[in-house]
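User: I'm curious whether this sequence folds into something compact or stays loose and floppy. Could you predict its structure so I can see for myself?
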Amino acid sequence: MTYTIPEEWVDHIKDGEGVEYDNRGNIKTIEDPVKGTNIGYGHSLTYNGGWKKVERIVGQTNKETLTVEQADKLCRADIKEVCDILDRDSTFRDWWRSSSPACQYVLIDMCYTMGIGDKDHGLKSFPNMIGAMKKGNYEEASQHMVDSLYYNQTKRRGARNAEYLRTGEWREFDCVIKNGHPIKDSQGRWKVKDSHTGEVYDYSKHSTCSKGEDMTRQQVKEDTENAKAFGEKKVEQARQASNKAKSAGQKQATAKNNTATKTPEVAENKQAQNTPVARPNGQTRTGNASTNDEARMRNMLNNLNKANRKFGQSKVIDVDKTLDDLKKQYGADASKVLAKAMMAPVTMAKTLDLRDKDGKLLTSSRQVIQKLCEIEDTQQKNNVITMATAARSRNSR
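Assistant: Here's the prediction. I'll summarize afterward.
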């Protein structure tokens, strides 16, 4: 049975995963303490068939990076696999497709992140939440999520899912940071702000529910023990890799300090690099788009054109003109704006209300990028930059 999910859901799932780009605009592997080595948008190489499975889906790779096109294809294949798993599993198959859209999305997202699992780990280790979902008690299900280790670990992602499940309304959140750490409100929920307006989210404006079964102590204790047992080996591997990288970095820095000489020309170049660059909202930001940023942007646009041609689309982007327009419009934030438009075009179009001449919302990265180059309104430019530069650090997810 086929199951087509909305494009914005694909964007939300991709946006929830941390990605890192190399200087060619390709997505690099990431070491995760629990999931091991990840590639693309949260695809675990350690537990999910390695590169052999990846290449069966996306074709030949260099076994180090994926193009944005390949990562998108892998993400969609993983989402389809998640839906197939939910269809087959006896816990979900009889009711999940007839549940609310928000409930369907949360099940897909959680299964995508942690797997279907069993009573000790993964999605099926949330029996109280699942039971409430099955009955249609979404407020109660949301509260069970808030009382879980998952909510405490995923922070921004957990906050978005809990509120989406509870209200049926999708909100882009970032955690409120104090002294370098996310904070909670008096009800034990992450204190969050709207990613686009910066307004702190007021939970009291929405309906609330009783806590229902108290999962806070026992379930969190069990989840903590299971997560510790499951991830202990990977945590140690990640720690060793981090120490190795720090050691290599220290050696490189020492060598650089021993050989570098500060000539007037070097000082002048450094000062030029640190000259504040004007931004659309009148603020300034130190530095300009680096050579690496420009090379990465150029490769991303070339990869997009390559993908469009592959799928028979005649319209492509003028890479040089687009690069110049983006840098002129968004300065040092141009690479982040482009990356956001590549990764989540539908979300960007809906949030910023980007439409074609017929009034239809834009749906492709090419359309969104070209529209971003044409924006003249200063406030709209500010909104674009705010959306593209919203905090995406791992401790705010």
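Summary: Confidence is low (pLDDT under 50) at residues 207-224, 261-289, 391-397. The chain has two domains: 7-224, 287-396.
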